[in-house]
Design brief:
With about 450 residues, this protein is α/β, with parallel strands linked by helices. It has 17 helices and 14 strands. The chain binds uridine-5'-diphosphate-glucuronic acid (UGA).
Length: about 450
């Protein structure tokens, strides 16, 4: 059922509870508070809670802190350690707790189940429980069974925000998807987001739950495809930059999400593609395309590591400086970061790894960075290195001081796994240079990529 509901719920402003103040919960909470709803956030990590109450977000996101402070100052945003306290007073309760990957690749619903067990007895009659976390098909029904109350409804409302633009994506979403087996609660949930003016899709819970996985799996497919095409460009001498421009001008394909790289990562795409694959298998459905998308990504990690290793002498101890550790630029998140995948492959080949990332303080020990010598400056990290490899597309890596780099490194070799640097500049400085699927050797007479708009051509 697709519909455009009248986006005015019975109570224009609702009492909302948000359980979990992570990458999904906190942006959701501050956005709903900015729309005028009264929002109580339950966060059980005492350090994170204390910081939030003081107006300090535990995650780095542009525009998050001012919105958080505004919500606190206007008393539309409150914090509590107890999910039960937040939920007992709420018309709508958003579950935004983690759904990590279980050992078999499926989504682990332990945290969702624990919250439900806690809040079910205190929910108001007529309360609406919303699954905002990414949960497998059938979870809305499972949660309804766990709550086991005829006067409470469970709704699916997947989140599509990206890290690094979470607030902008929450304030201006491209769509609101609401899954519910009853119309009235679906309209209430859709109405909470009326201020966004985003198109609304109301459907059944299974479809809504699957839309989220289908979207992330489609994005992953696009990336694995372009990474494979980049490999083919390397094998044939074509240039992936021009190729992607040629692809993206077809509006059916679109220019976005087509940058080749070291492989895709983060806390969502890897977890959600695996979980969807498990769902397909459990449903008796063959989905070889999805399995190939995941395998292609693993191969991309291998290919990126091999590119670096190809520039090293296996007979002598080698040192590689990694520029960038986060899974993409614009976030401090390193969960399932391609950089860590590639570093572990280099270390398995007995390479010493140093690193610099603008979000990592070298003096702080982090368990995921064990075995990596960290620096607070990219050129210090590159000292005595045989290869520098760019693994995150931070803008500060786009124009290195090539001469300075040449002076500090042991060998002048550079791998740009994000295609942010200029091959011509690297060549001019005498570097052996590899990137992803690009023409590395430029003929100065060759007309570089030109795309002219219709207006320019007229
Ligand atoms: C992803 C989706 O894009 C969001 O729509 C979704 O809401 C979110 O997961 C989620 O499920 O919570 P995010 O994890 O923030 O968002 O990261 P993306 O921007 O999708 O990037 C994922 C990976 O793909 C990164 O490693 C990034 O570097 C890589 N990527 C992205 C490329 O290699 N090339 C591109 O052109 C774009």
């Amino acid at each position: 059922m697709t519909s455009t509901p009248p986006l005015t719920p019975p109570n224009r402003f609702c009492n909302v509870a948000v359980v979990g103040a992570g990458y999904v919960g906190l942006p959701t909470a501050v956005t709903l508070a900015s729309f005028g709803h009264t929002v109580t956030v339950a966060e059980n990590d005492p350090t994170r809670l204390a910081r939030l109450r003081a107006g300090q977000p535990a995650i780095q996101e542009p525009d998050l802190e001012p919105l958080l402070r505004r919500g606190i100052a206007s008393s539309t945003l409150h914090f509590t350690p107890s999910a039960r306290t937040a939920a007992s007073d709420a018309d709508v309760i958003f579950l935004c707790v983690p759904t990590p990957q279980d050992l078999d690749g499926s989504a682990d619903l332990r945290f969702v189940q624990a919250v439900i067990a806690d809040i079910a007895p205190v929910l108001r009659p007529g309360a609406i429980v919303v699954n905002k976390s990414t949960v497998p098909v059938g979870t809305a029904h499972r949660v309804a069974d766990l709550i086991n109350r005829r006067d409470v409804v469970v709704v699916s409302n997947p989140e599509f925000l990206r890290e690094g633009s979470a607030i902008s994506d929450s304030l201006h979403p491209e769509r609101i998807v609401v899954g519910c087996d009853y119309a009235a609660p679906a309209y209430v949930v859709a109405g909470l987001f009326a201020a966004t003016n985003a198109p609304v899709l109301i459907t059944d819970t299974a479809t809504s739950e699957l839309i989220k996985y289908a979207a992330n799996a489609f994005l992953a497919t696009k990336l694995s495809y372009v990474n494979a095409i980049a490999g083919l460009c390397e094998a044939t001498g074509a240039d992936v930059g021009d190729l992607v421009t040629g692809l993206g001008l077809d509006s059916r394909i679109g220019a976005k999400f087509l940058n080749p790289g070291p492989g895709w990562g983060g806390s969502c795409l890897p977890k959600d593609t695996s979980a969807l694959s498990v769902t397909a298998r459990a449903s008796g459905f063959e989905f070889p395309l999805l399995d190939a998308v995941i395998a292609t990504n693993d191969a991309q990690f291998d290919r990126t590591a091999s590119k670096v290793l190809s520039l090293l002498d296996p007979a002598t101890p080698s040192r590689v400086a990694v520029w960038g550790l986060t899974f993409k630029a614009g976030t401090d998140d390193r969960r399932d970061s391609p950089a860590l995948e590639i570093i572990s492959r280099l270390q398995a080949s007995h390479v010493t790894v140093t690193s610099y990332d603008p979000t990592v303080d070298a003096s702080l020990a982090a368990s995921d960075l064990a075995g990596i010598t960290l620096f607070n400056d990219p050129y210090e990290a590159a000292e005595d290195a045989d290869v520098v490899v760019v693994l995150t597309e931070w803008s500060e890596f786009a124009r290195p001081d090539w001469d300075r780099l040449a002076n500090v490194m042991r060998q002048k070799s550079f791998v740009d796994a994000r295609n942010v640097t200029d091959p011509a500049q690297a060549a001019a400085a005498g570097f052996t240079y590899l990137s992803v699927g690009r023409r590395e050797v430029l003929n100065p007479d060759f007309l570089t990529t030109t795309t002219r708009s219709k207006e320019e051509q007229a």
